[in-house]
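Hi L.,

You mentioned the student needs an example of a multi-chain input paired with its predicted structure. This one should do, with 445 residues in total across all chains.
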Amino acid sequence: MNLDIDVQEKKGKNVAFVEGEVDVYTATKLKETIQPLAEGEHDLVIDLSGVDYIDSTGLGIFIGALKASEKSEGSMTLTGLNDRVRRLFEITGLHEVIDIDAAKREEA
Amino acid sequence: MDDMQVSMYQLYKNMLTSYLQNKSEHALYHAQQFSKQMMEQDMSPEETVSLHLSVFQDIADELPEEVTDSFDLLLEVMIGYGLAYREHQSLRDRQQELESELNVAAQMQRTLLPDAGINLDEVDFGVVSVPAGKMSGDYYHYDLDDEGNLAIAVADVIGKGVPAAMSMSMIKYAMDTLTDKQMQPGYVLESLNRVVERNIDDDMFITMMYGVYHPKNSHFYFASAGHEPGFFYQSAGDTFTDLEGRGLVLGVSPRMTYKEYDFPLEDGDMVVFLSDGVTESRVDGEFIERDQITNMIRERLDLPAQEIVDEIYQQLEKAQEFQLRDDFTLMILRRKV
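Structure written out for the whole complex:
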């Protein structure tokens, strides 16, 4: 399975557009891109409107990024989640600790 | 030449002479036996080629120079081949070593799980838990206290294999320190979360569903740490509802509390706990739906709990051509009629 990540800088924020499946095979690639961004001081927005499936290993990458962004000055927001992906964040209770922007998706 | 080389030389010479004389199948059979002996004695391919040349020179009166010279080239080729072959051998030995280490670890892991049967007048209980590989990232637990209350739990460490299995044992050891509190689901998850948060990688976590059945008031109490929802089956209306609790997965944030839920369990009612290895089973390439699982349970309501979980496991294992993608755990607690 493929995963594409495109990072753009917008108004002092880093926006990462993710497309594909985030699973045990692609998780490392996602981590390599978003972990350094989460550690940085700029706010990070991760747009998941191109993601139709996340498994538990993939979920772990967002938790790692959340912990990193809490240590740095920046924030982390997820947007564009489809129903299936949103459900996963709800079951795991992560929607309570991760900032999830329900309505809008970032403009590419 | 030492004795062994002399005997191999003699053996090969007899074999070759006999073959050159009558080209019999029998001599070819001897050649196969010879290969086995070669390997047993760690004889390299280049040594065999060189043996062939010496024997041949011995029995043929005179060889054309080109034939003798050509063997130099063949020897060179065989040396490279021999090196690769020996490396392959040593990797294979190493692999066998690792595999037996893993078997010991898997055996150790099995001893962490409860194995005594549950024999209660009021409760029918069954569990099946099978790792996708040798080691499991799923953990299950059941235990009775002195008052006859029954605690049950299923936990799932993300990922699978050895790293997941190591985190699984952490859950077991942490639970052992909570024995006097084990009948309070919210408290158990809160304590485990503190332990896990301190001892796990930043991008790992554990989900867990913990419940207790109190026979005195026939109530079931449970709490969930971000775990795959289970099912609650109500016999009166023949209905399944999702058993879901609010609560963050273990290992993300140090100070979390877990809401406790409870409901009465009537005669024939069931509580079903599972890991996502069950719901992420793929049949014909598609994830199965949750109502396919409840249908499988409903078709087997007249069986004891253990047989229900065993049969469902077998059916889903077969549907996936006996290749589990993830660790699989399914547990049923039913109030006997």
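You could point out the following to them. Chain B is about 45% helix and 20% strand. Chain B touches chain A through 23 residues (CB under 8 Å).

Best wishes,
N.
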